[in-house]
What does this fold into?
Amino acid sequence: MSGAAGSGTGRGGPRRALVGIDIDGTIVDHDDRLSERVRRTVRAASEVAHVVIATGRSTDGTLEVLDRLDLLRGTAVVSNGAVTLGLDPDLPRGYEVTESISFDPAPALALIREHLPSALYGVETESLDKLLTQAFPEGELSGPYRVGSFEELSATRALRVIVRSLDHTPEEFEQIVQRIGLNSVAYAVGWSAWLDLAPEGVSKASALESVRRRLGVEPGDTYAIGDGRNDIEMLQWAARSAAMGNALDDDVRAAADEQVPPVTEDGLAVFLERVLDLDVAA
It folds into this structure.
C-alpha cells in the first residue's frame, strides 16, 4: 500500500513530522465508535507524517483499530510504551516486536493487594499473552486470555499489569491508589476504577522518543494528542500537543498546549487538519 504510515515518503516528499495519537477517547469513543471524518483524516495525515498510534491497549486490541484505520505499515506503541511494533502486512502476523521492556510485578502486586484484595488482576506477558485472576467485565479487554492464580501472575515477567476494581468509583479508586504510594513502577489511573502499571521510566513518551530518534525526526516536528492520565508524558514530550475536550483530568489539560473538541465532535480531526495543513474532502 502506498503512503502508509512510516514508509518514509508522502505526497510532499520525505516525512518530517511525527504524530503520537492515543486511541480510546481520541480516535474512538468509549463505545468504540470511529467516525468517518477521523478515519479519513488519520489516513490523510499518514501520507505526510509518521503517524504513530500510542496506546495503553495491548497488541491485539491495537491491531483491531489499525485495521479500521487502514494503517498497516509503520510503527505503533502499545501497552503504555512497554512494547513497540513494526507494522508490515507482509509479515505473518502483520507486525514484529521491535522493542519490549518487562519487569517483575510481584512487589507492586503484593502492595496493591493489601489495599484492594477483591480487585481483578491481570498481566500482559513477554509473549504478549494475557494472564488474569478472573475475567474482566465484557468489552474491557480485547483478545484471548487465560485465568491463573494471583501467585502465578506475581511470578510472571510482565510488560503491563492491570488492576480493575468493581467495588469502587473512579474517584474512590484513585484516592486508594494515591495512598498506596507505588514506587519503582510507572502507573496511570484510567477513566474507570482501572490501574495500569508499567516498568519504571516507561511511558508512551519514552517509546515515542526512541521512535523519533530512529526515524530522524527533529524534536520540533513532534505532535501528540490524547485524553487520559497515561497521555500526560506524551503531551509534555511533543513540541505541540492537544488534550481532547473529553479529558476529565486537570493535569491532562495542563500538560497540553491546547484543547480541541471532544471525541464525539472529531477533535482529533480538527487538530490534525490544522497542524498538518490537511485539506480532507467531506
Summary: The chain has nine helices and 16 strands.
